Here is the input.
Amino acid sequence: MKELLDAMIYSSKQFAKEIVETGNNELPLTLFTLDGMTGSILITLIFEEHKSQLKAILRNVGADYYVLVGEAWQTILQQDSPKLDQLYSGDMRVSDLPLDDRKEMLIIVAAENGRTTIVESSVIVRDKDNKRRVTTWLNDLTGSTGRLVIDKW
Here is the structure.
């Protein structure tokens, strides 16, 4: 099954690149089961309800695996930054920070129900014409968490 998961991650990266570079704002979600059933859909999730909506989709279709592409913001702040407390408390989101303090990211989450979670990310950069471009993909070896990361459904 690892070969199928790797193939789905690869195709999701290609699809994600196209989405970023064309300005589409829907998230591609690929679902598949142990008996080989696969399907891909474009979804738009309500920000505050990402996790519950995604879990409901996974349960309703009986998916054993999923690969989801999403966009996010990343920031690196000094430990003594007052913004850090605001982010941790939920009083501020990374998207509220000035553009100089954050990076636009593309994230791929691939998961097997109750087992493996793979997260890869790529910084989105803007070229001289202000068009968005995907950079090198990086594996996240730290075990990401967040609204798009679901490891059990």
